[in-house]
Amino acid sequence: MNSLAWCLLVALTLFLTVALSAAEEDVKELKIEVTKSVDCTRKTKNGDTISMHYKGMLTDGSKFDSSYDRGDPLTFKLGTGRVIKGWDQGLTEMCIGEKRTLTIPHHLAYGERGFPPQIPAKATLVFETELVKIDGKDEL
Predict the structure, then answer these.
(1) Active-site residue, from 84, 96, 119, 134
(2) What is the domain count for the chain?
(3) Is 69 part of any domain?
(4) Model-level pTM?
(5) Average pLDDT over residues 66-72
(6) Is 68 labeled as catalytic in the residue annotation?
(7) Which end of the chain has a smaller Cβ tally under 10 Å, C or N?
(8) What is the mean pLDDT of residues 55-67?
């Protein structure tokens, strides 16, 4: 009975390892989930200077960065390559106050090498984002 239980445990471990690896590899495209929708007449577009709050996580839920923790949103020019490609693509057409969760495959984030030690190689990243400001447009 002990050897049967041991074999089942090993088989289950191998199955879970393969399943998790496959799930990680399945993320090939940027996924955008709007978690708080806002109606507006002025949405973000490439070239806008925007301010974003965000929480960055690995797919296992471990946090590697957060503007909320610093109490200061990140300000950057959208669509100019100053941030990872997944942000440039995933943060367009947003309204002030809107929240999105972005699931970003490694090729639109930190690539084959990652950003050690916080972000491993080929890591899919998950960002909870909130648009705080579009330069020249008042906050909500």
Answers:
(1) 84
(2) 1
(3) yes
(4) 0.78
(5) 97
(6) no
(7) N
(8) 97
Q: Looking at 32, 50, 104, 127, which residue is catalytic? A: 127
Look up the CATH number of the domain holding residue 52: 3.10.50.40
DSSP state of 61: S
Tell me if residue 84 is catalytic. Answer: yes
Query: Any idea what the Cα angle at residue 95 is, between residues 84 and 41, rounded to 5°?
Result: 135
In a domain, 92, yes or no: yes
54 flagged as catalytic: yes
* 11 domain residue, yes or no: no
Residue tagged active-site, from 32, 48, 54, 134: 54
Q: Please, is 137 exposed, middle or buried when counting C-beta atoms within 10 Å of its C-beta (0-12, 13-18, 19+)?
A: middle
Catalytic residue among 104, 110, 119, 134: 110
Rounded Cα gap, residues 44 and 137, in angstroms: 11
Residue 19 lies in a domain: no
Domain range for 55: 28-134
- Determine whether 110 is an active site residue: yes
Reply yes or no on whether 127 is catalytic.
Answer: yes
Instruction: Output the CA angle 36-120-132, nearest 5 degrees.
Output: 25
Q: What would the pLDDT profile of 88-133 be if each residue is shown by its tens digit?
A: 999 999 999 999 999 999 999 999 999 999 999 999 999 999 999 9
